[in-house]
Fold these 3 entries.
Entry 1:
Amino acid sequence: MSQWLANVIDRADSVNDWLSPARQEALTRLKETSWPTRRTEAWRYTSLHALENSTFTGSTAGVTAEAPVITGLNSIDLIFIDGKPTTDIKALTLPAGVTISPLTTTDTAMQERANKVFNQVKPGEHLFGMVNDALAQQGVFIDVAEGARIEQPIRIVNLVSDGVESHHRVLVNLGAKAQVTIIEHGAGHGHSMNTAFAEYVLGTEAKLEHYRFALHGQDAIHIGGSHFKMGESSRLNSTIVGYGSQISRIDTDVVHAAEHAIAKMNCVYLLAPKEHFDLHSLIEHAKPNGTTEQNARGIVGDKARAVFSGRILIQPNAQKTLAELHNRNLLLSRGAQISTTPALEIYADDVQCAHGATIAEIADEDLYYLQTRGIKRSQALIMLNFGFIQELVGQMPNKALAAWLEPLLRERFAMMEPQ
Amino acid sequence: MLSIKNLHASIEDNEILKGLDFEVKPGEVHAIMGPNGAGKSTLGYVLSGRTEYEVTEGKVEFEERDLLGLEIDERARAGLFLAFQYPVEIPGVSNMEFLKESVNAQRKERGEDQLTAAEFLKKAKTACAQVNLPLEFLKRGVNEGFSGGEKKRNEIMQMIMLEPKLCILDESDSGLDIDALKVVADGVNSQRDGKRSFIVITHYQRLLDFIKPDYVHILADGKIVKSGGPELAKEVEASGYAWLEDHEEANA
């Protein structure tokens, strides 16, 4: 038994709020779950050893994290530092059609609506999902009314300081034909521990533009997920960007619960030496005529390790599904590692699917082309290596976010590139 | 400016160039014509330094330097430019970034200051307008999703931006309709200043109606088999390349 988990269970017993019935149910399951080992399939390539017996004693005094400013984004910012809100959510002026409530809300009508999202999308068996169910008292519920088109992006910033453990939850409901952009922006300093799970329910013809940035430091432990339930003809455009950490694990799952939904998902990871990043994804097509396109690309620096496990599951009646899943990796040195398992599980006979995983190499032809214009080989290599992930950053629909992210990634990449 | 002597080059042990001699002086426009498989594109690749091609014999001097001893990028910075027949697409690198890097690499070599963002943009605007490419193309990945004609015009645009001393155009006319051909030719002609030299590689005489060469050479089986003035291109137009077989038999 992990000391850390025993401690979680202890603390969970004393949590008492309007979500308690759901929390207790998760806690019961949690108590029956054993600590993952290397033989546990979902954690096969990601060791939890660093967390197993850790304790987090709280923030060192005087360190105050600040939410990164993104020029031109003009977002509604909901800021949480070390698990506590620093934004007065009730005092925000919001566009018509959107309501944002802290999880600590006492408004029973909101509680009732939030309960229709809480644990309705996220799979039940994820160990840290259960931990989050039991302990996450902070977070937000965002409700976008039917037909409301919210132009202003909503950014949820979740910062964790050295020595702190925090648990954070995001619940989002999009009514029919509602449109919104949501950014889950996470960062952590020093040796911190954070679980952050988000659940999204998309109504008929709803459109969600989603971003998740897991930009935690190399000593941080970050485990979380973004989970989506697609309504009929709904649209999801999701981009996940991750740095590696001591442990960084993100699960992104999509359920096509109705027909004609389209999910486009990009993921980019850029791992500095010795970092670890694990992306797990399960896309389930439960109904016919759905479309999924998933592209995960990463650059892995020396002694860093990336794990990708992507599964597309097509249920027997999900005919006419179009699904593609690609994982491409660029290893910067011999010490870099990638464990990738793309999988298609198809139980319907009339579908179009493709999947693949590659360890990419820079094409000689591309290198030659840049050199014929006078660019030195070393510089051309940097441009092409970075271009490999920049292609997906360039596809982000929000240009202010792309413009903010690109130089950050470039800077990080410049430090990684072997000279 | 360029002097090629007895050039032999192979790819995967297949000899393509078999003793090519050729001289270009400043300001001259040379057309190289010939049937498919004669080694026309190989000549461009070998001069640019493509590593798959091995030079087994011969000498190439460019501006009094040993061209074959230079790296690909050094050749480019020395003033050699190859406009590709099939330029590659590089989605993650924007045209803007690519052009800036190239232009500044060349300027650095010449001891000139780097262009400011405003200066660069002004220059790029003019070059784009000259070949009829919308400025938005600069934001897209290098040749990403460009049509065949757009790729060719992008090559000419780069040529205009980089101001090379010697331009090699590898079938810049192939696949173009007459309007696109005129745009490419106008772009090239605008760069003729009496000092800059051109080697125009083409299968058809058509391009040479728009880019008037000083000399025409026929390349067959890795060698130049005939040289002459612009009238030689007309001859080829009229009789095709079939006479080459007779020529080879006569040589045998």
Entry 2:
Amino acid sequence: MKYISEFRNPELARRAAAEIAALTDGPVRIMEICGGHTYVIFKHGLTEILPPEITFIHGPGCPVCVTPLERVDLAIEMAREKNVILATFADMIRVPGSRSSLQQEQARGADVRMVYSSLDALEIARRHPEREVVFFAIGFETTAPTNAMAVLLAREQGLKNFSIFSNHVTVPPAVRAILDSPDVTLDAFIGPGHVSLVTGSHIYDFVAKEYGRPVVVAGFEPLDILQSIAMILRQRKEGRAEVETQYRRAVTWEGNRKAQAAIGTVLESCDMRWRGLGVIPGSGLGLRKAFSDYDAMARLGMAEPPSLSDPKACQCGDILRGAKKPADCKVFGTACTPETPIGACMVSSEGACAAHYHFGRHRREAV
Amino acid sequence: MCLAIPARVVSVDGPLAKVEVGGVSKIASVHLLDGVKPGDYIVMHAGFALSRLDEAEARETLRLLEQMGELEPGTLG
């Protein structure tokens, strides 16, 4: 068992597609919350083998995409500070702020470093005790424990020059906001598999119980997505709305308690503004008071920035809520491309616009 | 961003494990997952092992997939 090739078997994909066709008896709008799923759906051309009645609505599960403009600007301000090394994930370096990007600041001389892990940022702090190392931390529940762990290790190792700019967000409040949004209608959800490694599948229970929508937590291979759609259709057929886990080889109902404990020790729930969704109460994770020494905003004396609107032409907000498709945006594929992104959804490969752009779906939709 | 990949554990040394991803050697932190041992398959994200892959569950998922597609359209009421 390699856990990859087995889940890309074309014969099983054909069987799953046949099952889905047999179970389809009308239009179904399914939101895949996670940008990783959006990417898999496009990369493997899954929409091509599914009945036309099934529509995917791309959700807000791309942390690069939902980080609001003013917070990108604040990271840029931090990077401009003398003595600061700002470390972050690759996509955050390219995402445009209101006037600049970290990439542009890097070209102007700011010390911006790309890292794969919070532990890389910690290592930079160890090697440069004379510098102030700020980790521009973003991510959902998948990434939050890894970033929290870096803070715990910094404390354990007595590192005094490491801090994080916390922009963590959590999935359930965003899903609730979307379900409460009057202009978005959804029949079911594909639940984010990797968020669920940490949280467990139980966090979506309210979607089934309060909103009566099925949720199937899915893995990230094409067969995982196809099987999940079949499971959703079967629930609808049988009049059920439950949380089911398709990605059972990795996800449990309870999740990873140790990772949950790391989050709970270092971070606490706070209100957070999302691009496209506005302020969602309790949807963010900020540093607890006990860890304020590791809070970059406090260390650099920076205040919460006032909110900024997206560029006028950019439709990222509506796309992130599932109210519009990338092709509905006037600048999609013209002024806004992965090389020169205007909106965040074009930056990350998991952004709905980048996925549409890279895999050519915009051409088909445009005709 | 929540990209995570299956990795095979080669060896474990304290909080760090040597893992293999598609023939490439990498280091994964096991700070967030107890009991990781050589031969395990883990799900790795941003340098951390977050979950252990369960072979029996994976086989069960594939078995369910193999049973699919036996139905013809319109045969369900």
Entry 3:
Amino acid sequence: MNDRPGMTIIVKTIVRLSVSLILLYGVYIVAYGQLTPGGGFPGGVIIGGAFILLCLAFGKEQALKKMSISAASILDSTGALIFLTVALLGYTGGAFFFNFFVNKGIPFHLFTAGIIPLCNIGIGLKVGACLFGAFIALILFRVTAKKEE
Amino acid sequence: MLLIILLIFMIAGAIIALETKNLLSAVIAVGAVGAGVSICFLMLGAPDIAITQMAVETLSLVILIRATISRDLTHITAQREVGGLIAIGIFMAVFVVFASFALNEIPRFGEPLMRVSSHYVQNGLAQTGASNIVSAIILDYRGYDTLGEATILFVSVAGAIVLLRKKGRKKVGEKDE
């Protein structure tokens, strides 16, 4: 079992069962950020943590098959652009970050609060991809550089 | 009372993190301090910050242990200098004296001076429609700050990936052109 990448079979089984729940919890934190405590930043950190858990338990090939470095950087830039676009669209109402939805919806429902869920989704994408990219940059690049030497 | 016990626990953790010789123990002590900060935020009524602190603390602990500790030297052998300790003592004494003057002057906990914060609390739900007032402030009223934070995170991770990348890096024996 030691010749395969990653940790032992106990860790792999537990990670296989729990990683989807962790990912779902992160998505919940992001999506309900305007209603309950949480928001884009902690939800994004939890989403990034799920991928880091995959990378630790199954080795880097399996994790990079789920989310490659280019996909992480594309998601990172997409999140940043969503956030900036929402901010710039506020100029249709006259100001930067203007909440341009006229009908704010019923309070305490999921689709309320105008631009805030969109901003949360953008920040969540950005932070999750960012942290996974930083982890990959710190671990994987060094290992491959050492192997080539 | 529990808050004071937590604060003493966190100060003890910070001192252990400074004074221990093993780098792994120091990182774990820093993690304990972070968990204490998270519980403090939860007790002071800020669950948003508590969730963020807990998630970031756990993830940064994992990254520190996995990425740095397992590859570099893990024992500190150098001794602390006496002059540096004396200088730290003097500066900490000056800081404590002036901070005690300053902290007596700030308003008490939960009684803000500024009118803008009470405006946010009273009109936040009607103006933004978000029932989480923290979300309404950081993403609507104070959107500029959040944009700045996002920019900082983006630039730092882009810099890390550029500095640690594999392509375009010279080999050990390779000379400049």
